[in-house]
């Protein structure tokens, strides 16, 4: 992974994924759109790993639905201002791996486009959203482990607090990418 890698557009027709960028809608934990336009972007190495994850999910009859990928630092600041909790939101000074283009938030969907039950919703900032939260039904645990296995096999790692969040190992060594001024991703 290098700092000179470029951001790649992730699209349903080129990547065989469903895209539902919730931060371009009011259906996120802030209750308001943060992005004016819904462009799904990942740094080249993350995009390559995503392609592997797509193939692995396909091998068991499933697809990926992406909720968020690259996030400009200004959007990260909006999230931090709304919920200043480092358990769920990276502080701007530390930088989010979303703002490095190496993190993706997603879930698994079946052949009918229905999401597998993960026990909590995307961006539900509660203890039950932890990957290995005890007491969840077996089918939820199985679904989370299936997503975890697919994403790890593709080259991603996870964070403990969010079943939906995956990132490339070593991402912190990369600089934050400020694509908000020149790129297609605009803030509200």
TrEMBL record:
One of its GO terms (molecular function) is D-Ala-D-Ala dipeptidase activity. The record marks 71 as: Transition state stabilizer. It is an enzyme of class 3 (hydrolase). SUPFAM superfamilies: Hedgehog/DD-peptidase. The active site is at 162 (proton donor/acceptor). Zn(2+) binds at residues 98, 105, 165. Binds 1 zinc ion per subunit. Transmembrane segments: none annotated. Keywords: Cell wall biogenesis/degradation, Dipeptidase, Hydrolase, Metal-binding, Metalloprotease, Protease, Zinc. It holds the Pfam family Peptidase_M15. It catalyses: D-alanyl-D-alanine + H2O = 2 D-alanine. Its EC number is 3.4.13.22. Catalyzes hydrolysis of the D-alanyl-D-alanine dipeptide. HAMAP family: A_A_dipeptidase. This is D-alanyl-D-alanine dipeptidase. The gene is ddpX.
């Amino acid at each position: 992974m290098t700092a000179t890698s470029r951001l790649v557009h992730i699209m349903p027709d080129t990547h065989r994924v469903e895209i539902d960028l919730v931060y371009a809608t009011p259906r996120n934990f802030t209750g308001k759109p943060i992005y004016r336009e819904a462009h799904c972007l990942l740094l080249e190495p993350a995009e390559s790993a995503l392609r592997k994850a797509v193939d692995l999910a396909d091998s068991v009859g499933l697809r990926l639905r992406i909720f968020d990928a690259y996030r400009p630092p200004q959007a990260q600041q909006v999230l931090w201002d709304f919920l200043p909790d480092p358990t769920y939101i990276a502080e701007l000074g530390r930088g989010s791996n979303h703002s490095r283009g190496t993190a993706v938030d997603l879930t698994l969907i079946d052949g009918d486009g229905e999401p597998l039950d993960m026990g909590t919703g995307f961006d539900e900032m509660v203890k039950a959203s932890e990957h290995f939260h005890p007491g969840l039904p077996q089918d939820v645990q199985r679904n989370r482990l299936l997503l975890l296995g697919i994403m790890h096999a593709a080259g991603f790692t996870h964070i403990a607090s969010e079943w939906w969040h995956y990132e490339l190992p070593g991402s912190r060594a990369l600089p934050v990418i400020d694509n908000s001024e020149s790129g297609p991703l605009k803030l509200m």
